[in-house]
Structures are given as structure tokens and as C-alpha cells.
Amino acid sequence: MSPAPAHRTRRSAAVGTVLAALLLASACGGSSSTTSSGSTPSAASSKDAALAAKLPAAVASAGVVKVGSDVSYAPVEFFDTDGKTVTGIDPDLAKAVGDKLGVRFEFTNATFDGLIPAVQSKRFDIVWSAMSDTKDRQAKLDFVDYFNAGTSILVKKGNPEKINSLDDLCGKTVALQRGTTQEDVATKQQDACKTAGKPAINVLPFDKDTDALTQIKSGRAVADVNDFPVAAYNAKTSGGGNDFQVVGEQIAAGPYGVGLRKEDAQLRDAVQGALKAIIADGTYDKVLAKWNVEKGSLKQAAINGGS
Amino acid sequence: MADPAPAAPRAVPVRHYGRYVAATLVLAVVALFVVAASKAQISYGVIPDYLTSPIILDGLRMTVYISVAAQLVGIALGVLFAVMRLSKNPVVASVSWFYIWFFRGTPVLVQLVIWFNLSLVFQTFTIPGIYSMSMNSFMTPFVAALLGLGLNEGAYMAEIVRAGIISVDEGQTEAAQALGMTAGQLMRRVVLPQAMRVIVPPTGNEFINMLKTSSLASLVLLGELFRNAANIYTRSLQTIELLLVISAWYLVLTSVFSVGQYYVERRFARGAARALPDTPLQRLRRNLRRGRTGGRIR
What we know:
Chain A is an alpha/beta fold. Chain A is 38% helix and 23% strand. By secondary structure, chain B is mainly α.
């Protein structure tokens, strides 16, 4: 009589259980890339019941507003030293607005040029990502303006190529982020270069601005065109302040806006109300002062004020 | 008198009712998908226009170009490193082992990004005594893609070629040596031709994969199919429509080259079987001819 069959079934049952347990464990261990804005603002705001009442019922009961943002744009939104907490001007303003409304703004990292489609397809509720309010974008989303910034040119420290304006970029290689207003600025400059009889700019569009900054470091590009607070921040901090410098004046300053779906007018008005409230009580100024960007202060909190 | 022959039994083919049930269920599920697709908020109308748009066709050309180029680099390196790996020289064999280990062990995407950003660590590209060039001028997106995809492919091809070579019976090598062939002659005229039968199918597979892996080169700014489509849809926001367009083109590419692979395999299978089975085309012709004459030809 062979005892083998009993042993075999017991062993395979044990193996099967272990495998099943492993599968379950791995299934439960999935992590998402969602991180909440964990930075403490310089001044906490208290909930304003009147404003909170203006929120759509669905958002108020969920307690969370899902924010899509390209978290690689210091100092506007970027990851803290722990690599997980989203910090910067936008998360701080969002926390202040959220406190007034009694909800939490949850920032999720995504690629910049995919943010508008992501909001339209309801993956996110709003875009809060240093997104310039422009007429083109107003066709797709409504914007609550909250900050004013223009385009700056960032070059290698010492400015070896002697760049001082957009015209000096003709015939050179420029790295920038895809889907931004800077891409439009560069395209417009191509026409100016052609009229002036100079060679065209070699534009390299990247998914993240940090990839574009790397190209200046490696020498492939002579300049990166991005927003002025980002340019200033990177010039000051990158490589101990020895990597980059800002050249020229701010170009075509315009408002950043919080992007919302057109049908979410109620949420849009609630956000605008809360923004006006934090401007009135000084929280807005405190956040801008914390990040040294008082120059970009915009106090009207207009809707679709961009051109 | 013999009984009259019994009536032929009424023979009825076996009924497979279960097949009808299964077919109906499957068709119902397919119909659900078709209905869902028709209700989807896709502008199907723009798809034919984009299929032949110049930007997409440029991307298509680049995809084929980089895939073929990277695969050729991969095959050349693969043969070289496979032969090195099988060498009795310990230094040569170890270097080859290291190459295969490193380039198979790291993701293609990581390799691509490293090549593209190499100018962060090396400012010039120098072949000592012969040639020197600034790394940024040398490492264009195409070169970065070629190096990244080609070197990675070389590591996989080395293993495939090695498998092919060791599949050839040792007796063949012994016989060739007994006939006085040099190592080079015996590799070229006895071993490699026989190894091809084992090498070609996985190589064809690798090339089909390469056609699709080339889409990773979009991250080093190569203007291939995926990047060109993304450039369009990040502006027009017709994301799904354009992704369907490029999916269609990738399917066309892989199907065409799969057919090509079938015929290449047949070529190398000559001599392995007495008569090769018909190709689908030959079978079709045979069936058509049989249909016309109403009977067997031979």
C-alpha cells in the first residue's frame, strides 16, 4: 500500500495555501501615488460656516477635493525631502482654502499636459498646478485666478552664451515643459526669429520641467523657459545656487488659475469665496511671504481673468 | 436465397448542442462590447483622417527605422557576445557574461534615460587617437535610442544565439574538426547554419517586441509613432482616438512582420523535414483548385 497519495495531497494543499496567502498579501499591499498636502501653512485658517455651506453636497460629504497637479515644479508644488509630502505655494494656499471650506484638498501627482483631460474625465475634481489661465484653456475649464506670474529665462550660471532676452535664443537649443504657455511663447518667438532672419530655436519639450533643467546642466540646452517663481527658486537653491541664473525680465505676466469643470459652477464659486476670504484675512499674504513670491500677489480672485 | 441486405442504418452526426449554447453566450458578450463601443464618447470620424496624417506617417517611418536599426545592432552584438561567452578564454567569457548580466538586468527605460543624459558625466565622446566630439552633439535622441535599445537587445540576442549554438550536436563539431576545418570555418559553415533553425523563431519574436518597445524611445524625445501621436493629442485632447490610430498601425506592423517571419522560418527549416507543410497561400490555392475540379488532383 503506498502512503504517497495522502502525503502528496497534504503537501500540495499547504503549497496552495501559502501561494494564495502571498497573492492576497500582494494584492492588499498596493499603494497609490496620492499624497495629501502635509505642509503646515504659516497661518491656519478656521472653517467659515457660510462658505462651507456653498459647497456642493457631494464634495461636502466626501470631505475631500481631488486635486491633479504636476508635483515637480518647485517652489509652486514639489515633493518635500521625504519624497512623499507635497509642499509649496499651491498646497499651502489649498490648505488655507480647504480649512475655510472644511474640506481637505488632496494633491495627486500627474503629468502636466494630461491634467486638463484628467479633470474633464473626472479623475480629478480640480487642477491646481501653476496652470496659466488662458483663453484657449478657458474653452475647456473655468479658472479661479490666484497668482500672477510671467515667463522667465533660466540659463547656466555665468550666462556663457550671453542670453538676455528671447531674441538671443534664436538658433539655440531651448528645453521646456510640454503643454505649457512657455511652449506657446517659444513657438511665437520662432516667428520673430524668422522675421529677423535668424535661425529657428531648437525646442526640446519634456514631460517635466525638472527634465528640462537637467538639459541645461548637461549642456544640451542653453536655456529653460519656465515661470518666474520656479526660475527664481531654482537659481537660488539648485547646486547651492551655483547651477543657474535668471536673465532678462518677466515676459507676458498672466494669472495662474485653479481649473474646474464648467459644470461645477457651485464648487468654483465656493473656491472663489474661500480664496477671497483668505486674501481678506491676511493668510494669502503670509503664504506668499513664506515662499518669497510676494511679487506675484493677485488679489482680485477673478474667474477666467486670463487672456 | 440470401436475406435482402439490411436497410442502411440512419446515421446522424453527433449533435453538439452545447456548442450552440456556448456560441450564443460568447456572441452576447461580444455584442455587449460592440454596443458599449458605439455608445462611447469617441469621435470615430477623425480616426481615418489621422491614420494617414503626415505626422503619424513620419512617426511610423521612424518606428520602423529605429526598430530595424536597433535589432541589427542587437543581432551583431548578440552573435559577438554569444561566441565570446562560449570561448575557452576566461577573460573573454567573463566580460561577455558581465555585459549580458548588466544589460539584461536593468530596465530598457532606465538604460535609455542614462544614455540620453550621459553628457551630465561625460562632456566629450572620444575614441582615443581617432575621434572626439561633444557628447551633446553626439547623443541625439536617435543615437540614445539606438544605444539603449540596441545594447539591451544585444544581451537578449546573445542568449538566443548561444542557445542556438549549443543546440547543434557536438558530433557535428567533432566531425568538422576531423575533416580539418578551422574553428572559424566550422562555426561559419557547419554550426551556425544549423543553429539558425533554433535562433530564427525567437529572433523574429524579439523583432516584433522591438517594434513595440521602440515606443519607450519617446521619453528621450525620439519622433517615433507614440511621441508624434502624443504631440497631437496633448493639443487636441483627442487622446483615445489617437491612441487607437497608433494601435492600428502597431498591429499592421507586427502582422506584416509576423508573416515575414513565417517565411524566413520555412527557409531555414529546409532539410529538417522531408516535405515542408503548405503555406497558407499554397493551401488556399490547393483548396480553390480542388473546389473547381470537384475532386482530388493527385
